[in-house]
Amino acid sequence: MRDTTDSIRDGQPGRRLSWPWFLVVVVVYAGIIQGLGLLIGVDTSYSDSQFPTTESLVRNALIPIGASIVFAAAVVTWLGWWGEVLRYRAPVRRWVRWVPISMLAVALIGLNYGHLSDQSISLVACLLLLGLFVGVGEELMFRGIGVHVFRRAGLTEGKVALYSSLVFGLVHVSNAFGEGAQAIAQALVVSTSGYFFYLCLRVGGIILLPMLVHGLWDTSLISNLVGDKPQVSLGLVFIILLQVVLIVVLLIKRRTTEPVPAGVPS
Fold it and tell me: Mean pLDDT throughout 57-74?
């Protein structure tokens, strides 16, 4: 992979960031989340739930992820990349538009409404805020900074999608500090989700769409894990099934995710 400092095109705005330095930025980003979690986090080992109380959700997730958003925004500001991070121009074929549509629909269906109705208003409100924070923070770092680092390196859209998604998945291995070996499997699943979020960026042409899809997707997943007694809903089955379907579709149609050539019907 070529270094951005060697391959950057003349006329591109902002500072240069090579892919090795991007990996350093990602390590710092993950360190903020994990470090703050260890520093101010609440022990929840007494419960089967990931977030049994509002306090645990705020201190174990909201504050660390909120700090990571500030860090990611500071990096984008320092680079001077806000203009291109917010908008992404790479046309896609019509079938790709079904990726964000299906993910939004299934995420809404998958929300564990019954379980959430049994929780306190403060816990549900913080869950919704957590989904927003995750969508904004992770998309800003990986579909914002990451995608543009690899794109500026002169890579094809297919490789931009692949490498940014792999980094997105690998950073979730840091969860192994709290979740053990299952974080490895989580990282593999997250990598495929990262590819879907990249396609959402391509479809919308603006980073707000993958932020919305990502935030709602994670809110739906976490809705099963809050409160004293976590409760899996049927909606989780739909989420898993869609993930599998999208993976199969991408394997079949992966060559058609490149930008549509001029004059070719989409």
Answer: 97
The SS3 call for residue 206 is strand
Rounded to 5 degrees, φ, ψ at 43 are: -70, 120
The C-alpha angle with vertex 171 and arms to 168 and 173, in degrees rounded to 5, equals 125
CA separation for the pair 128, 212 (Å, rounded): 12
Cβ atoms of residues 54 and 126 within 8 Å: yes
Please give the Cα distance from 132 to 63 (Å, whole number): 13
Amino acid 175 reads N
Query: Whole-angstrom Cα distance, residue 127 to residue 60?
Result: 12
Average pLDDT, the chain: 88
Closest residue by Cα to residue 138 from 167, 173, 179? 167
What pLDDT score does 68 carry?
Answer: 97
Residue with tokens 């900074």: 145
Quick: pLDDT tens for 25-37.
999 999 999 999 9
DSSP letters along 41-60, please?
PPP-TTSSSSB-SHHHHIII
